[in-house]
Amino acid sequence: MSKKALPLAEVLGFEAGDKRIDILRRIGAAGSISEAARGAGVSYKAAWQALETLANLAGTPLVEKAVGGSGGGGAVLTPAGQRVLLAAEELARARRQVLARLGTGEASTPGRAALSLRTSMRNQFPCTVGTIKPLQGLVRVQLLLADGGAVHARITRESVQLLGLRAGLPVLALCKATAMQVAQRIAPSSTRNVLQGVVTRASRAAAGGEVNLRLGSGVQLVGFAAAGHGLKPGHSAMAAVNEAGVVIAATG
Description:
Layout: H1 8-11, H2 19-30, H3 33-40, H4 44-58, E1 63-67, E2 73-77, H5 79-102, H6 110-114, E3 123-135, E4 138-144, E5 150-155, H7 157-163, E6 170-175, E7 181-183, E8 192-202, E9 209-215, E10 220-225, E11 236-242, E12 247-250
Helix pairs in contact: 2-3, 2-4, 2-5, 3-4, 4-7
């Protein structure tokens, strides 16, 4: 890939403080993926996942194996990897300068982060991480809503590490509207979230269609109801989404 073609904007959609960029930076300093993983507080597998994600975005490897040395080999940044780090440092420096000039605090809030988040997922709302528990080879993360309610997401251990999830961390919960089932009543399930709300808008199509629901926390959800749902604005209704269908976006 030519120097001009490296898509830095896509790669640096992550903040300079993101663990993925941190791992890349540590590899450049230590020359070792395992040492970079230990320094970043993640597993070796998670470090490789981070490098693969960045390489996919860049369209070219950012790290390559180094042969020889006292340890019998290691890892070094490719020219593309070096350029990514340089760009990350320049962006971080520019951000600090702008915030200092405008007198803006550094505190991160889920709402502000959502303004720069572009995704096809129409359901996006701020939460706070609650409990984090291993479950059947995955991790079940509790996401607390403003009204005391909660939704749960099932993600990998590596994702927990790379996102730096911990109790009390502000995050965004996201899910596709097409993955959200809306009906007058939905039976509870151990694998899906069921939320209670009030209909604010409902499709009148005979085949069913899109329904907007407002939760007690004020969060607005969009989902789909089946034919003959009978829902109208003001009606009480339920929305359900599988825990595996909830995506977590770290905002800090």
